[in-house]
Amino acid sequence: MRVSRLLIGLLLLAAPLARGDPLQTEFLLLPSAEAVGTFNRDAPVTQIEDEVLKADMLLSLQKGKFKLFGEYLLSDHEGDLERFQLGWQFSDDTVIWIGRYHQPSSVWNHDHHHGQYLQTSISRPDIDEWEDLGGVLPQHFTGMLIESSRAVLDGWRLRTAFAGGIAPHVTAEGLDPFDLVHPSSDRLTMGYQARASLHPNEFTESGVGILFADDQLAQVGTPSPAQVGFNHADLRLLGVFGTYAADNWKVQGTLYHADARLYYASSTVNDNFDVGYIQAERRFPYDLTGFLRWEDSIGASDSQYLKLFEEFARIRYIGGVRWDFAKRQALTLQLGSTHTLNGHFDDVRLQWSAAFF
């Protein structure tokens, strides 16, 4: 794949494992601008957000074994401290973080974060969507995260991540993560996540792995009609994922199995569903990259848990092309067809994205 994107990805992945006594700093600005249109729409609620301009800012500081990492996202409708982590280099292979982090059982968000330039498609898989954009899985936690990458099996690398922290709430607007800037003590519950993967060498994206999460999600505030009587949910995830990356091809996919137990005022509901996606990308001459993604689910239409989130896409097809027209700048055109739990809509998106050091 393109060298500039790979270098940025390696920078973000390798920075937590860097060593050195002098103060080291890294700053990355990832701006983007997007235009969105819908047509042939019969869904009462779509996932289209009135969000045109975004700037994702990442700052990393390190002195000796101590680290500070932050990510702040500013858009035309909000500003949010997405991550704020204090770290300690436990060994050459392992770093321990405390603070607000991205949960490690979302492989897509671990690789791409909030920066639009770091992903080829404009939209992310709906199962890995952010909480404030209608996401159905918790993505931001506040607690402890342990990341490690070590050599095993004649040069292969085992990458692991284990985490536990304060889980998001379920509100009438969707999931709401714990806010470090404006903290609340209302019904604090916990979540735990883990991810492990094997890779042929240290610097490749190719690999396969497994993931796990066990999250407790409490309802707070005035409930929506679908949440009347709902008190809290225990959500457990098991998943497998894989990526194959070559010079001109990249294929990645994830399959989640979810078991949810929903507690209402006078009853308990057991629920389960499966959701997965696969995305293929092909590099063409003139710095063009085509991409296709298929997202699908089993049991989503009957899931009581997913009915708490009426925007969820049970089936979605997207395709498009990206043009890297300048150094660390790209234009992307994407077409999508989405079937939500309540209807269907098609959309077209045009986006400019960039990365500046």
Q: What can you tell me about this protein's structure?
A:
With 357 residues, this protein is mainly beta. It has a single domain (3-354), classed as Porin (Beta Barrel). The protein contains 2 helices and 18 strands. It has helices spanning 3-14, 107-112, and strands at residues 24-39, 53-63, 66-75, 79-89, 94-102, 140-152, 156-166, 169-171, 174-176, 190-199, 207-218, 230-245, 249-264, 268-284, 288-298, 313-326, 329-340, 344-354. The strands form 2 sheets. It has a 16-stranded antiparallel beta barrel. The chain has a two-stranded antiparallel sheet with strand order 8-9. A hairpin with a 4-residue loop joins strand 4 and strand 5. It is globular, with a radius of gyration of 20 Å. It starts with a helix and ends with a strand. The model is unreliable at 1-20 (pLDDT under 50).
Q: Classify the secondary structure makeup into a structural class.
A: mainly beta
Element order: H for helix, E for strand: HEEEEEHEEEEEEEEEEEEE
Mean pLDDT: 89
Superfamily (CATH H level) name: Porin
Q: What can be said about the biggest beta sheet?
A: 16 strands, antiparallel, barrel
Helix count equals: 2
> Beta fraction of the residues?
over 45%
Overall, the morphology is: globular
Determine the N-to-C terminus distance: 20 Å
Oligomer: single chain
CATH topology name: Porin
Strand order of the largest sheet: 1-2-3-4-5-6-7-10-11-12-13-14-15-16-17-18
